[in-house]
Write a structure and sequence with these properties.
Elements lengths: L7 H7 L3 H9 L6 H11 L6 H13 L1 E4 L7 H12 L13 E4 L4 H8 L5 E6 L9 H13 L4 E5 L2 H5 L3 H15 L3 E5 L2 H4 L2 H13 L4 E3 L11 H18 L4 E3 L7 H14 L12 E2 L2 H15 L12
Parallel strand pairs: 1-2, 1-8, 2-3, 3-4, 4-5, 5-6, 6-7
Helix pairs in contact: 3-12, 4-13, 4-14, 5-6, 7-9, 11-12, 12-13
């Protein structure tokens, strides 16, 4: 990792008080909505050749956080999800593993046992996911429970109410406290972009997350109407690119919710390459929060290999 430039110290000063943080965030350049959406749309029209498509499909599979976050989750369902993460296509052992499985804290131990020593990470949502409406001690307890059970990664939600009320310092301090409670686990900070209303707010939330120590910034919980979009993901990719330019610190990006097809996934990979750069084309720095996406990627992968689509029983139903 490169040495932090001198202006990294100015970013440290930005979080010295609620006032300095507000001035910093409101001093960020305003987002050109038309320009942002036009660029995202233009990048989405890029076509790639067959060999590049095969590479992109395998890369996308390796970037998936295979997720189950339902009240009806059972140990059996989580074990099946773990088995699928480790071996997505039992008919082709050359298929990449997914990056992680993502579960509630009470299912972490089951997931850890299911993935074993495969290298697949276990991520856990925490901090009163998905609404985040709980006292900070409850949120930190949620995190500690997941870490104690063996979680490799923590996906936290920010307090959107505090953010939208302009209480940026509360959001910053809570992220920092969760980062500390996470210990060695990597921290993904979820903004719920569909509730932040404006691109300017998404940019500000991105900088709060990065300044507070997020290892990843993540669009959404997948539990609201508007989740990951090319435009909001492009904006967050610009933020991590600019943050590394100023501090030397690299932060990952995770779009989540609504990405269901291979075509969609490839559009996002183009966004990554053309905006943040090739350094982010790795599952250590870019993830997809998705489950149904994996099935489509497997179907398209077999189509490239055999020239035909498989039958409806080729992939398991999540």
């Amino acid at each position: 990792m490169p040495t932090a430039p001198a202006n990294a110290h100015a970013l440290a000063d930005a979080t010295a008080s609620a006032g300095t943080l507000r001035r910093f965030l409101h001093g960020l350049p305003g987002v050109d909505t038309v320009g942002l959406e036009a660029r995202a749309a233009a990048l989405g029209t890029r076509s790639i050749k067959t060999t590049a498509k095969a590479y992109a499909i395998d890369l996308a599979i390796s970037m998936i956080d295979l997720t189950t976050l339902e009240g009806a989750d059972t140990p059996g369902k989580v074990r099946a999800l773990g088995a699928k993460a480790v071996n997505p296509d039992p008919t082709d052992r050359g298929t990449p593993r997914t990056a992680a499985v993502c579960v509630y804290p009470d299912m972490v131990a089951v997931a850890k046992e299911a993935v074993g020593t495969s290298g697949v990470k276990v991520a856990s949502v925490a901090t009163a996911f998905p609404a985040g409406r709980a006292a900070i001690d409850v949120k930190l307890g949620d995190v500690r429970e997941a870490v104690a059970a063996g979680a490799d990664e923590i996906d936290m939600v920010i307090d959107r109410g505090a953010f939208l009320a302009g209480d940026y310092m509360t959001v910053f301090e809570q992220i920092r406290a969760v980062k500390e409670a996470s210990g060695e686990a990597r921290l993904k900070v979820i903004f719920e972009t569909g509730e932040l209303s404006t691109y300017d707010n998404i940019r500000r939330a991105s900088w709060i997350g990065m300044l507070a120590g997020a290892d990843f910034i993540k669009t959404s919980t997948g539990k609201v109407g508007v989740n990951a979009t090319p435009a909001n993901t492009l904006l967050m990719l610009e933020a991590v690119r600019d943050f590394r330019a100023q501090t030397g610190v690299q932060v990952g990006v995770k779009p989540a919710g609504g990405i269901r097809t291979t075509k969609d996934a490839i559009k996002f990979l183009v966004l990554v390459n053309e905006t943040a750069g090739a350094d982010w084309l790795d599952n250590h720095w870019f993830r997809f929060g998705a489950s149904s996406l994996l099935n489509d990627l497997l179907m398209q992968r077999q189509k490239l290999a055999t020239g035909r689509y498989s039958g409806p029983d080729y992939v398991t139903v999540d």
